[in-house]
Design brief:
Keywords: ATP-binding, Cell membrane, Membrane, Nucleotide-binding, Translocase, Transport. The chain is about 30% helix and about 25% strand. It is of the alpha/beta class. Strands 5-6-7-3-8-9 form a six-stranded mixed beta sheet, with helices on both faces. The protein has a three-stranded antiparallel beta sheet with strand order 2-1-4, covered by helices on one side. It binds adenosine-5'-triphosphate.
């Protein structure tokens, strides 16, 4: 892989006596879209926190070549700042309304610039959160179950939006999800976390959009990796 944006080598993360990540290795290429699946408690969010630089008490190395933005399941907007000010919060040009408006147009929320976050729907708030992440033009975008709290139709619309934004901005993406179908639609590569490290990798075919039929076989294999009997929820 030419100059990976993420290089993780023998990463170990312990909480007290408990080893959550155990000699984990991972490379992500520039502009690559990777989905990370794993059973509840397998350490997905822990890995994202390490990559975001929020947890540095680890053994091994986790290097990121460039800037990182994170979007979480909960949008985490500041309720006392209008939507546009949330987007540019902390940027060096954080009074730059034009920057915020461009980002809002990209997530199709132009008319919401002057609203308060608490007046937004869940899907709208999540789009603001994406705009805030992308306005920093990150080399790596970490998405921690960003669509998990949304209804099914909104989630489908978000998938299309994220794919558009990914094509426009071309960050590498690491998406944590419980939804195998979401991973199949969005990712170039699906990784399965178990026993503290990557236990399976599935490379998905190009070009996009792939056909549903092409997904069926990979879907079965990912579910088997997760120890889920097909037909049962992951
Ligand atoms: N700050 C902490 N202190 C102690 N234990 C923690 C801490 N953070 C996470 N853990 C433990 O580490 C394990 C992995 O947690 P993590 O949140 O990374 O899992 P996950 O795969 O993201 O789970 P889920 O899919 O349910 O969100 C869990 O057993 C959790 O209880």
């Amino acid at each position: 892989m030419a100059s990976p944006v993420v290089e993780v080598r023998d990463l170990v993360k312990k909480f007290g006596d408990r080893t959550v990540l155990n000699r984990l290795n991972l490379d992500i290429g520039r502009g690559e879209f990777v989905a990370l699946l794993g059973r509840s408690g397998s350490g997905k969010s822990t890995l994202l926190k390490v990559l975001a630089g929020l947890d540095q008490e680890v053994e091994g190395t986790a290097s990121v070549g460039g800037t990182v933005s994170v979007a979480f399941q909960q949008p985490r907007l500041l309720p006392w700042r209008k939507v546009w000010r949330n987007i540019v919060l902390g940027l060096h040009q954080d009074n730059d309304r034009a920057v915020a408006e461009k980002a809002l147009a990209e997530v199709r929320l132009s008319e919401h610039a002057d609203k308060w976050p608490l007046t937004l729907s869940g899907g709208e708030a999540q789009r603001v959160s994406l705009a805030r992440a992308l306005v920093r033009e990150p080399d790596l975008l970490l998405l921690d179950e960003p669509f998990g709290a949304l209804d099914a139709l909104t989630r489908l619309a978000m998938h299309r939006l994220v794919e558009d934004l990914w094509r426009t901005h071309q960050p590498a993406v690491l998406l944590v999800t419980h939804d195998v179908d979401e991973a199949l639609v969005l990712a170039d590569r699906i990784l399965v976390l178990g026993e503290g490290h990557i236990v399976a990798e599935h490379v998905l075919g190009q070009p996009r959009p792939r056909k549903a039929a092409d997904h069926a076989e990979v879907r079965s294999r990912v579910l088997a990796d997760l120890g889920v009997t097909e037909g049962a929820p992951a």
